[in-house]
Amino acid sequence: MGNPIKSHAFEQTSPAWAGELQSLMEAYQQAGGDPASFQMPEVATLAVSGDQVLVSHDIPGVHLYSQPLEHGVRVSVVVDDGTLVKHPVHLCFGVLPMEGIQRIEADYQIGNGAQVQFLAHCSFPNAVRVEHRMNARIHIGRNSSMSYKEEHYHGLEGGVEVYPYSEVTIEEGGQFTSNFAITRGRVGTLMMNYHIEAQKDALAELVTKVFGSGDDHIRVEETIHLNGENAHSMTKTRIAVKDKAISEVTTITEGNAPRARGHMDCTEIVRDQALAANNPIVKVSNAQAQVTHEAAIGTVNRRELETLMARGLDEEEAVDLIIRAMIRS
Amino acid sequence: MTQPFFVVEDVCLKKDNRPILNHINLSLSEGQIHVLLGVNGSGKSSLAYTLMGCEGYTSESGRILLDGKDITHTRITERARMGISLAWQEPVRFEGLPIGKYIELGASESKREKVIAALEAVSLSPKKYAYRAADQTLSGGERKRVELAAIYAMQPRLAILDEPDSGIDALSITDIARLICEMAKHNSAVLLITHRPELVEMADSASLMCFGSIIFSGSPRETSQYYQNRCEPHLNILGSQPWQISLNNS
């Protein structure tokens, strides 16, 4: 990586950007984040507004590097071998104007025997025409674990196009957990694409929850290769679409090694003129591997509705409660 | 016993042109516990759904009256808001819906206190269960208790309990009996579908259903005796029945 910008602590943010940081923190809060985390020296933090790194704060064992790009930033996160990170690393990405492009090229290197959690919030609260591209390459070392929780807020206009792309390699005994959610406001366009390679005894869990409305378009593609002996994976997808929103989910799990186990679980709730599709693909190339899937697409279960209506909720309230409970759990 | 506030008059129900309920008559007063007996498939649950106003269970003829007002064609939500509620025999699971939130739905006031009191009433620790989801991770018995807690928190004028005891261990039956008595003490009428002698005993009145009709009404003792003498000998015709009703001193 050439000319990296290293570790701006939040205290060092240029006064010229102080107002921007304040606005970004407000947006961060709208996406569900807690700005107080950015004031805690023991918490590693990174905040990027458009193509500007406003905060980059290291802690022992966690190193953040960044480098400007056209319309974005290249970010590198390195967690040293054996580092057990006590507090989640807080990441904030946002575009505050109504229009803009943000491209994030991210590399995560999680050393052997390390444990780390990330809390990422992406906020585009005023978006009328915003494009956000996140290309992440994640390498999880032997016997390490990484949890990545990502929450988005795209405002109420639906003018956001988001392209999260991740390539994840999990070495022997490693664990990767991803929780991705857009459950408030509009989605706009979401084109999500994850590729996971799991080695021996590795574990991958992907949870995706999205609530689409208007003319939102949601596409989720997840591919998991269980290449190592005893590798395990689980994908859980919960999507609700209403109005004229479209949801397309494709999950592929390959069991390529002895005792590899994969499961795919997808539920999509459809209302109004919305459209949902689910395409689970199971590939098994080893006789001792097993991959299973379950999928349910349709309207809200009548019994669930009537149970809530028998408590006094009207049908709309009952549907809303069922959907929100499902995607926010 | 006060005057009946809930009256079922000559209600008939057909599904797919097949008679399900035939000329059902029933009335309930405040604080009354009325037990509904009958073999599997006799129409007890169908009657419960009809009284609650579930989809597909609108009576073809007859009337359902609440305080003299005809509610035969009102929807389930309106009936619930008027004070009628139903605990299903097999309660559904709600992914992600906290138990506390579920219980407080029907409670009109002091919601947090109601949740705590309702969970304690069914012997579930509020600390352990209030924030847990009412989902697949609950056992059948736990889910049943949550369902009863939700009804208890509502303090409905009429609680329809469809086999609240099925799949519940013997120890829990005491909890359920106590809860039902508590509800009746607070003036809720309880229409209880059950086969458990312990619960039948505590009722004020009972009816026996067979092939969609109420064929006998009287005291719980008379009704269960009628069942033993007249129905049990014909169980091979009426349908399978894994339980027996026998009251003390009968």
UniProtKB/TrEMBL annotation, chain A:
Superkingdom of this protein's organism: Bacteria
Signal peptide (UniProt feature, chain positions): none
GO terms (BP aspect): iron-sulfur cluster assembly
Ranges where the SUF system FeS cluster assembly SufBD core domain occurs: 110-325
PANTHER family: FES CLUSTER ASSEMBLY PROTEIN SUF, UPF0051 PROTEIN MJ0034
Protein name in UniProt: SUF system FeS cluster assembly SufBD core domain-containing protein
The organism of origin for this protein: Bellilinea caldifistulae
From TrEMBL, chain B:
Name listed for the protein in its UniProt record: ABC transporter ATP-binding protein
Alphabetized PANTHER family for the sequence: ABC TRANSPORTER I FAMILY MEMBER 6, CHLOROPLASTIC, ABC TRANSPORTER, ATP-BINDING PROTEIN
Record-linked Pfam families: ABC_tran (PF00005)
GO molecular function, one term: ATP binding
Alphabetized SMART domains for the sequence: AAA
Superkingdom of origin organism: Bacteria
Family note: Belongs to the ABC transporter superfamily. Ycf16 family.
Species of provenance: Bellilinea caldifistulae
Keywords, in A-Z order: ATP-binding, Nucleotide-binding
Domain called ABC transporter: residue spans: 6-236
Entry-linked InterPro entries: AAA+_ATPase (IPR003593), ABC_transporter-like_ATP-bd (IPR003439), ABC_transporter-like_CS (IPR017871), FeS-cluster_ATPase_SufC (IPR010230), P-loop_NTPase (IPR027417)
